[in-house]
């Protein structure tokens, strides 16, 4: 090989190495940009917005990159969420450094990809409000159907938007049911106000909701013990975690918006078998006394005992109770244990300042509803037998005593657990499910909702 040819080969090699280094730097810059885009949604109007702008430029100053990397690490550390490699600064390869700063979260890439897609949608001029004037049911025609199909396609709920049919056919109905399930709605394929509201929710709003809920949940999970119970209020769901795995799930009923279930953490220490129900004054005045005014037999039919301020049980006829309920009522209600007791078979007690707890219910048909903010603050559990059996198997040593205390259905029995079970009432309105689908739920207590656009849905929908 002559000297000139050797020089040429060396030059080509150097050029290839430089090109490879530039390519890795560009990939690293893209990874940092994607992560900073997520963090800017969680901390708006912060340095992450500036970092996002810097990383969108063709070339970024190395010192600026170092500051961006440091701020990313600080964000995750402040939330006790580990990154892939804390010693990223010792690495020379920019791509490996960028990878090292990604959080150790199972579905981080899926969330990031979904947010990137939503932000791309937000950059397009495709989200004009869809309006309807009446409910659109499967098999019906409406000129708005093609717009709805396109919206479903953009959100990934149908595989094609090419059809211009104005008929709500079976394929579109299936896609609507999929969309409705992802948003906690009744999957009936009927296009009504709630379905239209979520179809009109801007991609930028979706991205913000998903990013914030993702980080909130990740921070929560990073600080938990091996065994705990979590109730996600907007999802109307309970999950029992044991050693990192979900061992039990259940639908739940939570407090109404004007009687909200509080956010708190505590520990279940006792199970009450066949509980009696001491009716809170608010429920007595707002719910029970109106029933007694209509029919004084309500007290006897529902197995209520009435006590005065000296804890003396009062006896009156149905007519007398009806009359008394129309004026000042200086008494209290206690419902005896039994088959029609409002608390059902079990009450799971945990100390808190709000007098709320988990319990069974005498109205199991309410769990069939998609919207389950129906209680006065306590949490009703559908799979209450499953929860009680899990506790008996894992937190109770004297299992025979546990069995014995179930024999008498009308006698209240307090049972102290050998170990407590941590319980957390949380509020997450979005997450990625096991099928990599983005789930969204209504902000039922208006805790962090954004202003509703006036043009997102018709003011009144008629049922034709």
Automatic annotation (TrEMBL):
Keywords: Cell shape, Cell wall biogenesis/degradation, Peptidoglycan synthesis, Signal, Transferase. Residues 227-406 form the L,D-TPase catalytic domain. SUPFAM superfamilies: L,D-transpeptidase catalytic domain-like (SSF141523), PGBD-like (SSF47090). PROSITE patterns: LD_TPASE. GO terms for molecular function: carboxypeptidase activity; transferase activity. The keyword Hydrolase does not apply. Residues 1-21 form the signal peptide. GO terms for biological process: cell wall organization; peptidoglycan biosynthetic process; regulation of cell shape. Coiled coil: none annotated. Pathway: Cell wall biogenesis; peptidoglycan biosynthesis. The active site is at residues 359, 378. Transmembrane segments: none annotated. Pfam families: PG_binding_1, YkuD. The keyword Transferase applies. Belongs to the YkuD family. This is L,D-transpeptidase family protein. It comes from Shewanella fidelis.
